[in-house]
Amino acid sequence: QRGLAPARPPVPFFRMADKKRPAPSSAERPPRSSADRKSNAGSTPDPWEACARLEYGADRSFAWTVREQVLDAQPEERARIEDQLLKSLALPGRTDAGRAFLCQMLALVATAKSVPTLAALLKDPKASDDARYALQQIAGPEAAAALRDALGSLSGRPKAGVIGSIAHRKDITARPVLAGIKENPAEAPEVREAAARALAHLS
Question: What's the CA gap between 7 and 22, in Å, rounded?
Fold first, then answer.
């Protein structure tokens, strides 16, 4: 739908269609070696740490390893996967590409537990698109509140993007603040236009 500014996929090789792939049963999953179970065994780099330091155009083999674990996670494994993604997101030396990838993985498994971390990223104009992409996939009032709260900290294109995510979630409680943004001449034209389109979507 035009104008709602849905979050762009941060990592080109990942497609949301993969989210629909059913996770294999335990019997269908190939046995993993001890090195797979403990990725830092010997001299093998930890893929969870390596994917936090991804560079655009560089080797992404470790990201593929993490991606497969996320996509194949059984329901009882999702909490552990979410914790590991949050730990990777907090690593020093995390790159922009790494942050984008990790947020995209969180979009598949995150719960309200991830909201504080993503809310902090949401207020950073450089990280806003990545964070909102994950937040708009998380059910519950915590994620909705984080998106609404960020409106006071952003301007320009990042703010317009958050408005698009609010509309995407069909958060009707945001209508009063969106109406104020629409009528505020101090707001950038793209922000006011995004608010107008969101209000039309939420009516």
Answer: 24
Strand, coil or helix: 12 = coil
Task: Out of 2-11, 45-54, 130-139, 168-177, pick the least confident.
Answer: 2-11
In this structure, the dihedral spanned by the alpha carbons of residues 154, 160, 164 and 167, taken in order and rounded to 10 degrees, is 80
Cβ atoms of 166 and 199 within 8 Å: the answer is no
pTM summary value: 0.77
Say how far apart CA 123 and CA 136 lie, in whole Å: 15
pLDDT tens, residue by residue, 107-137: 999 999 999 999 999 999 999 999 999 999 9
CA distance 27 to 196: 51
Do residues 188 and 156 make contact, with C-beta atoms less than 8 angstroms apart? yes
Alpha-carbon Rg for the chain, nearest whole angstrom, is 18
d(CA 60, CA 49): 12
Which residue carries 């960020």 as its tokens? 150
Contact 24, 74 (CB under 8 A): no
Average pLDDT on 166-177 reads 96
Q: Please list the alpha-helical segments (H only) found in the chain.
A: 34-37, 47-50, 61-72, 78-89, 96-109, 115-122, 128-135, 141-150, 156-168, 175-183, 189-202
